[in-house]
Amino acid sequence: MRKLLIPLLAAIALPTAVEANWYGKYSSKFEANEACKSWAKKGKKYSFEYVDKEWIQFDHTVIAYKPGYFTDKLKVKSVKSNRWCIEENDTNQILGFEKTFIEAKNYNVDEWNQLIKKSKEKVQKNFKY
């Protein structure tokens, strides 16, 4: 009976690589980063268009931006995700951030400016290695 009990206790007490992942620990920084990237891909994709209002150079003369005149040439569409990963070296973990109040859609300038005021960035997941 003792011969069976000691190996059973040892198997339960010693964590394996699979059990380490259950507790949120990865065996390497690479694995933690890959897990965070996989989590981030499942986030919501959103886009917004904005007009680049930088000064326009024309024949070495600076011309101020005129609303509506250069709109088609200056429109920029940005596609982003509401999730991203940042490495934190001090604690040996990859932090999974998520931006709140974001929906998967294309925002216009006014909607985007209002959304930025109320959205918050929070750490949602920790990928320890």
Q: Could you give the distance between the termini?
A: 38 Å
H/E series: HHHEEEHEEEEHE
Mean pLDDT: 77
Low-confidence segments, ≥5 residues, pLDDT <50? 55-62
Characterize the main sheet. 3 strands, mixed
Counting DSSP H or I runs of 4 or more residues, the number of helices is 5
Number of domains: 1
Structure, described:
The chain has helices spanning 2-13, 17-22, 29-41, 71-74, 109-118, and strands spanning 45-51, 56-58, 61-63, 75-81, 83-88, 93-99, 106-107, 121-128. It has 129 residues and is α+β, with helices and mostly antiparallel strands. It has one domain (21-128). Strands 4-1-7 form a 3-stranded mixed β-sheet. The longest helix is centred in the first third of the chain and has 13 residues, at 29-41. The chain is elongated and about 75 Å long.
Keyword list:
129 residues; alpha+beta; elongated; three-stranded mixed β-sheet
Q: How is the secondary structure organized here?
A:
Elements: H1 2-13, H2 17-22, H3 29-41, E1 45-51, E2 56-58, E3 61-63, H4 71-74, E4 75-81, E5 83-88, E6 93-99, E7 106-107, H5 109-118, E8 121-128
Parallel strand pairs: 1-7
Antiparallel strand pairs: 1-4, 2-3, 5-6, 6-8
